[in-house]
Amino acid sequence: MTVVGAREGVVAADWRAAVRRSAAVLVELGAAGEGYPDACVAVVEQNGPYIVLTKGLALVHARPEEGGMDVGVAVTRLAAPVEFGHPDNDPVDLLLAFCTSGPDAHIGTLGTLARALSAGLADRLRAAPDGDALSVALKEALPDD
User: Fold this and answer.
1) CB 88 within 8 A of CB 62
2) Is 61 tagged catalytic?
3) What is the mean pLDDT of the chain?
4) Deepest of 30, 92, 110, 145, by most Cβ within 10 A of its Cβ?
């Protein structure tokens, strides 16, 4: 079973703060360890803004061994968009953070999120009127295990 969370209206001064706040939801849910938010920032510092997948959307994650304890997915909608330095898809207003406890689940969760995004998940998340609706839209997009 995937643990799901949502946060909306989040204020972030820059992409690092946005990534940390997004990944912190996974820590609060008990799906990731305390170091996971910093590991997610390190991914972007080391590899660049490749996590900004489409206009305004970043897929926040780190390797399972960096603190993933369970399968968790969280959506964070920012109060104001932030720049990641992506040449085409900045600024980012929506972050999907995920974690898993192992590589097979990591690939599976990534595939599930890709299919959901292809089916319009980002638009549904942006249209959600509040945090509860964000959570419902995310849960509806993820299959029951």
Assistant:
1) no
2) yes
3) 93
4) 92
**The pLDDT value given to residue 145:** 53
Helix (H) or strand (E) holding 10, with range, is strand 3-10
3-state secondary structure 56-76: CEEEECCCHHHCECCCEEEEE
pLDDT at 1: 61
7, 61, 77, 106: the catalytic one is 61
13-39: b (≥16 Cβ within 10 Å) or e:
eebbbbbbbbbbbbbebebbeeebbbb
Q: Which residue has the higher pLDDT, 109 or 1?
A: 109
DSSP β-bridge partners for residue 60? 97
Q: Could you give the CA distance from residue 137 to residue 134 in angstroms, rounded to a whole number?
A: 5
* Predicted local distance difference test score (pLDDT) of residue 87: 94
Burial class (CB in 10 A: 0-12, 13-18, 19+), 100: buried
